[in-house]
Amino acid sequence: MAPTLEVWNAGKQMAQKMVAFINQSPSAFHAVEQCRKRLEECGFQRLSEKQSWVGKLQANGRYYFTRNNSSIVAFAIGGKYQPQNGFKIIGAHTDSPNLQVKPVSATGKAGYQQVSVATYGGGLWHTWFDRDLTLAGRVMLRADGKLQTRLVHIERPILKVPNLAIHLQTADERTAFKISKEDHICPILCTKIAAELAGEEGVDKPRHHAALLALLAEQLQCNPEDITDFELSVCDTQPASVGGLHNEFVFAPRIDNLASCFCALEAMATAEGLESDPQCRVIALFDHEEVGSDSYAGAGCTHITSLITRLTCDLQTGASSAQDYEVATASSTILSADGAHATHPCYVGKHHELHRPELHKGPVLKFNANQRYATTAPSAAAFRELGVRHGIPLQDFAVGNDTGCGSTIGPISATRLGIRTIDIGIGQLSMHSIRETCGTVDVLFFTKLMAAFFTDYHTLEIDE
After folding, report:
1. What strands lie across the sheet with 395-397, from one edge to the other?
2. What is the pLDDT of residues 352-410, one digit of tens each?
3. Which residues contact 447 (CB under 8 A, 6 or more apart)?
4. Is the bond into 85 cis (omega within 30 degrees of 0)?
5. 268 φ/ψ sector (left φ>0, alpha ψ -120 to 50, else beta)
6. Contacts of 203 (CB under 8 A, 6+ apart)
7. Using one digit for the tens of pLDDT, what is the confidence trace for 309-355?
8. CB within 8 A of 413, min separation 6: which ones?
9. DSSP string spanning 360-382?
10. E-assigned strands of 269-346?
11. What is the DSSP letter of 7?
12. pTM, two decimal places
């Protein structure tokens, strides 16, 4: 059933907010910074993992902490919270497939200065050719006797990965478009002639081109020699936008998975009823999902274990009872939020005939018999009930037997934490392309579903 006109227009408004979030989040570091700002505007207090939290937390309190500046965990303690009551956790990830500048990047041939990059995750790399590219990430500076971290986003196009002209390719090469990720994805920064005229040459075998360091220094208002290291990602300069004939689509980079991050953040900021909630509400936005999640800041790390350990006790004294942790995890639920595959109109046969999600028809429950997704019948039934209560349509997705299946942080979290988990996401096209597409109203539906998870899930009676 089609959404009402009121819901349709509200979806466009929510999508515009998401577009602004994506445009301000060209890297995982920037995404976390945007989340931090929004949380603090909503009264969340920053905590440090390096300090004890005993005596600093209280019922109805809102808090957050970061790790590596690329992952962030925010939590709101219910007014009726008790240590064994459990947690309602929404998990997503801040990273997306991209090209990352190598530790030694200065290279070049045929009169060009190029930047050597590493492919991060499983991108549709052909979509990165002939785009107007730039750089974003974090830079380490030596200043005032300290090593400081600074975020940088160069907003003008400075890099290009050009295609080979059709006249220089054989018929087989044109048909296959086979590329070497090492040899053919090496962005052009500038010509050597231009660098010489700008006085940016002269260092023997530098780690990075002087022209690149000079540009970073200009952005950061420092000297090039102050830059000690950096983590920079290549990104598109074309901003995200709402488009389509009826302004019904979001055209954007990094929808996988900044869309889920945005919806989780909105739900955490706007969900009502915290004062009567017996559980703790959590959003955990991890890094490194696209490369397996096994890292200091990924979903395979100790983020949630540490959080639950710190909260399954008397918040003022730190005292805990036997098995508080075990009872709390058994009473908890994780919503693993990540992009879902909407049906492509030109490749309908790639979807199983009974599982073909469409845009504008609501979030997608993801199932896999081989546990690539963590959804179970009880967790799916619970979210279907939330959908009915709040007028949120839901769809089902499962791959065909002859089709491969991606995965999410869901199975990782379920396995390592022993917590009931469900995998849900917004349907999208062109997943892992430099430009992806989703439906505007689905952004609203997913945000509302997450808010319902926070406000209502503890009221459901679920047998397993």
Report:
1. 45-46, 62-67, 71-77, 280-286, 87-93, 333-337, 420-425, 364-366, 395-397
2. 999 999 999 999 999 999 999 999 999 999 999 999 999 999 999 999 998 888 899 99
3. 14, 262, 263, 266, 267
4. no
5. alpha
6. 210
7. 999 998 998 898 889 999 999 999 999 999 999 999 999 999 999 99
8. 89, 91, 299, 304, 334, 336, 374, 419, 421
9. TS--EEE--TTSSS---HHHHHH
10. 280-286, 333-337, 340-341
11. H
12. 0.96
Separation of alpha carbons 1 and 23, rounded Å: 32
Task: Go through the chain and tell me how many residues it has.
Answer: 464
Which tokens is 455 given? Answer: 């406000």
Cα-based distances in Å from 345 to 103, 154, 228, 351, 431: 42, 36, 49, 10, 15
pLDDT at 402: 86
449 phi, psi to nearest 5 deg = -65, -40
Is the confidence at residue 204, as pLDDT, over 80? no
Residue 450 burial by Cβ neighbours in a 10 Å radius (0-12, 13-18, 19+): buried
DSSP 44: P
CB-side exposure of 173: number of CA atoms within 13 Å?
10
The token duo for 212 is 């690149």
Structure confidence at residue 203 (pLDDT):
55
DSSP labels, 238-280: SPPEEETTTT-EEEES-HHHHHHHHHHHHHHHH---GGG-SSE
Q: What is the pLDDT of residue 208?
A: 95
- Summary mean pLDDT of the chain: 95
Amino acid code (one letter) for 207: R
Q: Are 363 and 444 in contact (CB under 8 A)?
A: no
Tell me the per-residue pLDDT of 287-316, one tens digit each, with 9 for 90 and over: 999 999 999 999 999 999 999 999 999 899
Residue 188 has what pLDDT?
98
Q: What is the DSSP letter of 449?
A: H
Q: pLDDT > 70: what percent of the chain?
A: 99
Structure token pair of residue 349: 């046969």
